[in-house]
Structure formats: structure tokens, C-alpha cells
Specification:
Blueprint (H helix, E strand, L loop, with lengths): L2 H30 L11 H7 L9 H21 L4 H23 L3 H10 L2 H16 L1
Helix pairs in contact: 1-3, 1-4, 3-4, 3-6, 4-6
């Protein structure tokens, strides 16, 4: 297979699998850490309005979803890439960062969470995923 085509497919696979991990953790999160009384997260409007009810612990599942989704996606993209694995991993991180910025703009939320999420969950996890995909023999 052409290396460019393989890199593109690897990156698309990383984006797809990272998105699945993200959504799975976002879906499971409220079952592990219950939402505050009166919170409605079934719609974007309900989520935006419910943010004021959240305690800091309620922000842990979305942060972990963003960070682990990016990490898994970046790792997979780098592992499957024919060449430039770190570029593929960082593309996944950058793509999810753009989504995180869009979500922060749409939902609002506390500034401390938005900064923490945008600074720690995307590019650092993309780098870590790319680094972990290299394995011991290439380190």
C-alpha cells in the first residue's frame, strides 16, 4: 500500500477509535459519578444550563474521555502509520483539540476546566500516544 494512503487510513482509524473511546467514557461517566440533582445532559442546551450545578468531580469523566480518547486515537494512528507516526498522532491530537475548543465555546463551563481540558487533554496526549507507539526498540 502507498505510504501516504496508509498514513491517511491510520489517522482516520485513530480518529474513529478515539471518538468511540471518548463517547463511551462520556456515556459511562454519569453512572460512575452521578450528576447533580436537576442536571439534564440529554441536549446541548440542557448540558450548558446544567454546568452551573456541577461540582469539580463531575468534570472528571469528560476530562478523562477527552484525554483517553485522544491518547488511544493517537497511539493507534502512530502504530498503524507507514511513516511519520508522530505527525499522525499529533494530527489526531490537533483534530480533537479543535473539537474541544468548539465544545468549550458552545457549552461554556468554568474557565478552570476549559483551560485544564484544552491544555492537558489533547496535544500532550497526542504526543504521549505517539511516543508510546514507538515501543522499546525505537525509544
Amino acid at each position: 500500500m502507498n505510504p501516504l494512503a496508509r498514513n491517511i487510513l491510520a489517522t482516520v482509524a485513530g480518529l474513529a477509535v478515539g471518538s468511540v473511546v471518548n463517547m463511551a467514557l462520556v456515556t459511562v461517566g454519569p453512572h460512575v459519578i452521578p450528576l447533580p440533582e436537576g442536571a439534564d445532559v440529554s441536549t446541548m442546551e440542557g448540558l450548558r444550563d446544567s454546568m452551573k450545578l456541577f461540582t469539580p468531580v463531575n468534570f472528571l469523566p469528560p476530562f478523562l474521555a477527552h484525554a483517553l480518547g485522544t491518547l488511544v486515537g493517537a497511539f493507534l494512528a502512530a502504530k498503524l502509520a507507514a511513516s511519520h507516526p508522530m505527525r499522525c498522532a499529533l494530527f489526531v491530537g490537533a483534530f480533537f483539540l479543535i473539537g474541544g475548543i468548539a465544545a468549550a465555546n458552545m457549552l461554556g463551563g468554568p474557565m478552570w476546566f476549559n483551560i485544564t481540558d484544552l491544555v492537558l487533554a489533547y496535544i500532550p496526549m497526542g504526543l504521549l500516544g505517539g511516543f508510546l507507539a514507538r515501543g522499546r526498540s525505537e525509544a
